[in-house]
Specification:
By secondary structure, the protein is α+β, with helices and mostly antiparallel strands. 26% of the residues lie in helices and 27% in strands. It contains 20 helices and 40 strands. The strands form 9 sheets. Strands 5-6-4-15-16-17-14-18 form an 8-stranded mixed β-sheet. Helix 3 packs across helix 6 and helix 3 packs across helix 10. It starts with a helix and ends in a 14-residue tail after the last strand.
Length: 825
């Protein structure tokens, strides 16, 4: 009878569970499996249809290990390990086969990228080899190789059957006590005092403490049930299955031809061919049809045409084999092509694991484990910033913006991953008050947290557009001029995109002392650089704190951390603390006035005293600039004398134009973020998300001076730092400069110490003052023993740049102005 499945589901529905997981795809089942494996068995997974009936069932099942970030690579490595043992554990086949994976190159630029890719793999401990076209043809004999320059071969990659894998994970969860109920739709989520309390279904309510949204392309809809923004959008995604092809066998590796936007895998003597076309086709703008289980969309051979054309070129035998089956299954994609993980900032105990951008099978094992650990521990146990939901803000949920952005992001899978590549769609979005002034001056804009930011300025007659390359790019001479002006004269930077908060209340000092590594109980007008740590001693953020009143602080952090820091500070305030944190990012423009002539410039436009004696480093005060009153803070991120001006938005244009007019004869240059990066790297200044991550401590980062370990003041992460200090450091951040001034670096390269892999580069740029590429990177001891500076000084260093080992010189102090004499002049 038609009502029997629903009746059975209703009977199996508990009235209470500690955790409710919404969605029975591969991610939902992975979270259930890992929570249960960690001892949290009071959980129920609710699936509106049948397990894997949404996106999972039509996924291609490719499992590649290497990603752009080490932490995401570790997740995928764990996925391969899990999938290889799951059948023995559960008795259900997963279709896992370690057949290896290969990517081929048609162009010299792609070949350069593959060599860089291979070096990153070695830095992360992945077995990887560069092979020539002939060897690629031997590994994958059914393809044409006459136009190939070579390939990269990863023998540990593989493939799995998505539906079988999901069932195996579900059985593994059930074996440990988890409940999985199919045929139950969630229709509401109960929230009380900002915290999840339960879910409502078509068959009744379930009281719970935690909800995990693994609803795939329905995740945005589920988020709206409790006011949580889930920035994803569905797009049509295509692949086909060919007829039988001679030479295609079960051990045939997965093969990717990114220059043709396509991939192949073996399927019972045939080939599955799919890809990621450059201009995608968004879907579901009016909502997902109901029901939509085990369903596909109509074929669109015009949209699929570019993939099919390239596939026929690469595998001519496809023409005779024909198309046995075509698949057009929608999947959800995010604005930056990384998935969404973690606790939502809007509602406590509401977690997300969704938006996998067609990488769900490769990522689900590790992502499920990472999210389960996050739920149990209350914070990340590894560096998951690249996929943290808090990298987005509420405006990223705008439907029109998402639709236009996803049109581009689907194709990024196989687009050339150029250094500093900028997304072009759905822009401009957020603009500084002086955007029009920058635009008239020839600014080439990049984007961060939706803000349009000047990366560099093109001189008159020069087009402000990047010509991408792995070598020195076209903007380098122009950014060099900005760099030199900062070092020798004065430069003006628009840094309005900084995240800015006021923190005010009776307990503001006490609360910040607990959250911050440095001592923030300073005099009014004092400025403190500090970290904010997790219990393991790893960075959750770094920022400057300015005391503007006895009970009030101004907190300034990087552009991308607005949501994260607001959420983290709010969640970790001491219980009962009387203090309020308010985001004032949009209320102030920020202008950096930097360089040896910055004092002269500011003195021209203000009656305030900017002398070294009157305006000390790391102090802040209100001053007049022209007709406006602004906050001037003497601090720098470029290693020169300078001030940051915090200007109420309505005065921004007036102040900026006043500075431009007054600095014309001082050599004043408008400068961008590329110059900031080269300047800060010469000075050895660390950056969040590169040198500073949740897995890196201040001691490892060389920032122990910003920790109040010499006091008795407690702070979050203190005990972990004390234990690490006693045990000795097994890795640390160092500065290096390439010996060859003609070579360019971008970050991510393999570091070698005495010829052995010893870490990787976290940040790199061309140091115009240093006379060569400058970098920061983590060096590790290799054998787990503490690192000693004397040993580091006597070693030799190289950087692997696209397969070539280039000598570099180690600097245990900053390459530029190691005593900071210029900063404090």
């Amino acid at each position: 009878m038609a009502g029997e499945p629903a009746a059975a589901a209703a009977a199996a529905l508990p009235t209470r569970a500690r955790v409710v997981i919404i969605g029975g795809g591969v991610m939902g089942c992975s979270v259930a499996y890992h929570l249960a494996a960690l001892g949290w068995t009071d959980l129920v997974l609710l699936e509106q249809g049948q397990l894997s009936c949404g996106t999972t069932w039509h996924a291609a099942g490719l499992v590649g290990q290497l990603r752009s970030q080490e932490s995401l690579t570790r997740l995928c490595q764990y996925s391969t390990e899990l999938y290889s043992r799951l059948e023995a554990e559960t008795g259900l086949a997963t279709g896992w086969k370690e057949c290896g994976g290969m990517s081929v190159a048609r162009t010299p630029e792609r070949m350069t990228y593959l060599r860089r890719y291979a070096a990153v793999a070695r830095a992360f401990g992945i077995d990887c080899e560069i092979v020539d076209a002939q060897e690629a043809g031997r590994l994958w004999p059914v393809m044409r190789i006459d136009d190939l320059l070579g390939a990269v071969w990863l023998p540990g990659d593989g493939k799995a059957n998505p539906s079988d894998l999901t069932q195996a994970l579900a059985r593994g969860a059930r074996m440990r006590g988890a409940r999985i109920v199919e045929g139950i739709r969630v229709i509401g989520i109960t929230v009380t005092d900002g915290t999840v309390r339960g879910v409502s279904t078509v068959e009744g309510d379930v009281e719970c403490e935690i909800v995990v949204n693994c609803a795939g392309q329905w995740a945005k809809q589920v988020g709206l049930m409790c006011g949580v923004v889930v920035p994803l959008h569905s797009a049509e995604h295509f692949y086909m299955v060919s007829g039988q092809i001679e030479g295609v066998h079960p051990e045939l590796p997965v093969m990717r031809d990114p220059d043709g936007y396509i991939y192949f895998k073996e399927d019972v003597g045939a080939l599955v061919m799919g890809g990621f076309e450059p201009d995608a086709k968004p879907w579901g703008m009016d909502g997902i049809p109901d029901p939509f289980e085990f369903q596909l969309l109509p074929d669109d051979w015009e949209q699929f045409g570019i993939l099919l054309e390239n596939a026929l070129h690469r595998v001519p035998a496809l023409e005779a084999a024909g198309v046995k089956r075509s698949i057009n299954g929608p999947e959800s994609f995010t604005p930056d092509n990384n998935f969404l993980l973690g606790e939502a900032p809007e509602v406590r105990n509401f977690y997300l694991g969704c938006g996998f951008n067609s990488m769900g099978i490769a990522s689900a094992g590790g992502a499920g484990k990472g999210l389960a650990e996050w739920i149990i521990n209350g914070e990340q146990t590894t560096d998951l910033w690249a996929v943290d939901i808090r990298r987005f803000a509420r405006f990223n949920g705008n439907e029109q913006w998402l639709r236009d952005r996803v049109t581009e992001t689907l194709g990024l899978h196989y687009a050339m991953p150029w250094p500093n590549r900028e997304l072009e769609s759905a822009r401009p979005l957020r603009r500084s008050p002086v955007y029009h002034v920058l635009e008239r001056a020839g600014a080439c804009f990049g984007t961060k947290m939706g803000w349009e930011r000047a990366n560099w300025f093109a001189p008159a007659g020069t087009r402000p557009r990047v010509e991408y390359s792995f070598e020195k790019q076209n903007w380098l001479p122009h950014s060099c001029a900005e760099h030199v002006a900062t070092r020798e004269a004065v430069a003006l930077f628009d840094q309005t995109s900084f995240s800015k908060y006021t923190f005010k209340g009776r307990d503001a000092v006490t609360a910040l002392q607990f959250l911050c590594t440095n001592d923030v109980d300073v005099a009014v007008g004092g400025v403190v650089y500090t970290g904010m740590l997790n219990e393991r001693g790893g960075y959750e953020s770094d920022f400057t704190v300015t005391r503007v009143a006895g009970d009030e602080y101004l907190i300034v952090t990087s552009s991308g951390q607005t949501t994260r820091d607001l959420d983290y500070i709010g969640r970790h305030l001491p219980e009962g603390a009387h203090a309020v944190l308010v985001d004032v990012t949009s209320g102030y423009a920020v202008f950096g006035v930097m360089g040896p002539r910055s004092r002269t410039l500011l003195q021209r436009v203000s009656r305030a005293d900017f002398s070294a004696e009157a305006f000390l480093f790391a102090t802040s005060r209100l001053v007049d600039i022209g007709y406006a009153t602004v906050r001037a803070t003497r601090i720098t991120y470029v290693g020169e004398l300078g001030w940051e001006l915090y200007v109420p938005t309505e005065f921004a244009v007036s102040v900026y134009e006043t500075l431009l007019d007054a600095g014309a004869d001082l050599g004043l240059a408008q400068a961008g973020y590329y110059a900031i990066d080269s300047l800060r790297l010469e000075k050895g200044y660390r950056a969040w998300g590169r040198e500073l991550t949740p897995e890196c401590t201040p001691l490892e980062a060389g920032l122990g001076f910003a920790c109040k370990l010499g006091t008795e003041i407690p702070f979050r992460g203190r005990e972990a730092l004390l234990a690490q200090r006693a045990a000795g450091l097994r890795r640390k951040v160092v500065s290096l400069v390439l010996d060859d001034p003609c070579r360019m670096m971008w970050g991510g390269e393999l570091l070698l110490r005495d010829g052995r892999a010893a870490g990787h580069v976290t940040s790199a740029a061309y140091g115009h003052t240093a006379g060569g590429a400058v970098m920061l990177g983590y060096l590790n001891s290799g054998d787990g023993s503490p690192l000693a500076n004397d040993d580091l000084r006597t070693s030799g260093y190289h950087v692997d740049i696209a397969g070539e080992r280039v000598p570099a010189t180690l600097h245990l102090r900053p390459p530029y102005d190691p005593t900071s004499a210029r900063v404090r002049s």
